[in-house]
Fold histidine--tRNA ligase.
Amino acid sequence: MAATPFLILQPRFNSYINPLFRSLSSSPLSFNATTAIQSSLSPPSETQSSTAAGRSGALSPAPPLSGAVQKIDVNPPKGTRDFPPEDMRLRNWLFSNFREVSRLYGFEEVDFPVLENEALFTRKAGEEIKDQLYCFEDQGRRRVALRPELTPSLARLVIQKGKSVSLPLKWFTVGQCWRYERMTRGRRREHYQWNMDIIGVPGVMAEAELIASIVTLFKRIGITESDVGFKVSSRKVLQGVLKCYSIPENLFGKVCVIIDKIEKIPVEEIKKELKVAGVSEEAVHELLEVLSVKSLAELEERVGSCGEAIADLKQLFLLAEKFGYSKWLQFDASVVRGLAYYTGIVFEGFDREGKLRAICGGGRYDHLFSTFGADDIPACGFGFGDAVIVELLKEKGLLPELSLEVHNIVCALDEDLQAAAAMVANILREKGQSVDLVLESKPLKWVFKRASRTNAERLVIVGSSEWQRGMVGVKILSTGEQYEVKLDDLK
């Protein structure tokens, strides 16, 4: 049945609605609850430990209560975050882009416990990870840790599933990770990470597909090749150099962790750490010479013995042309990634202006499964943290405007019509519309402020005379159009 013009509502509705809409709908209510709370509390404590906190399960005794109740520090632990509504909207937007890109590439979503056995991360991750673990002994005297990354958990799940899954696997996850480390811009002690992994494909096509997916994500959120690039190399190059100088294979992981610091600490410190690790002075010199190479042609001249590494890299650059992202790639022999389990091609997304740390990174890890007692399976993947990309979007002015939006705000004009308003809200919700139901008896002035703050599309008013006739009042807030509509016809 067609809606009838809503020209006359009960007098008090008419007396409020027109002038209030004109004067208030453009004036959102402004109230900062966080400021109000923090103004009444003591400033945050700065006495946190900078060394042992990440590895200790001990709790400090609570301060004794004397007289008045002690005020609690309202800040989250150092290096962690709260997500109030505006930040949660941004997080959901970013995660929805992670998931949509993964869907476009045919990946399936998985997840794992945040709490894992400590050995999962200490067996093949490298010394740096061991020092950064949030780990402790639980009440069953088991050594456990908050996951610092996601790949070992993925490997564990693949081994657990065994032959019940058919290769290749294309899995992704978006999960929270914890590392006790020095904080810099875009680096926190907890963060969320998007991982995509391909298990069971030995060829470079897998790496090319993964980099393509990251490029797709960047394009979706407004990042271009002038903003971000990918440094690409292969650990097989490093292995070849070390083999030439008879460096024991068991030092390879340690050497990679040291070289991964090459842009973070002075070169003299790098040399010193390599020598302490057992690398000869001659090998250190040759290694640093090779790591300074920035083109495949020059690399081929210097280390012709690393034929497999060169062939892999050439194939990757050829595939990048076909995928359409060759302008995003550049060869950089110094990229090795800090995790010990990488075995072949490695890549790292970087901010071309150099203001931020690595945006994402990954590579091939063909021998990770055997470190957990299973047969090796060719595999590669990447990790992409949420904190750095948000910083980059801020830097580029690309953060989306994500305000709260609801379809309807429903209110009753009389307190005894609150139940009727709830019924109207329920009807609309069952039709898939979002409804902000005014839960108390409030003046229309307050309701209009609320509607403005929530960006409501329309106001639905339950008044006594309309309700007796089985109708409600509706006002389209963007145009000012108003009408009555039967409850059965409310959409």
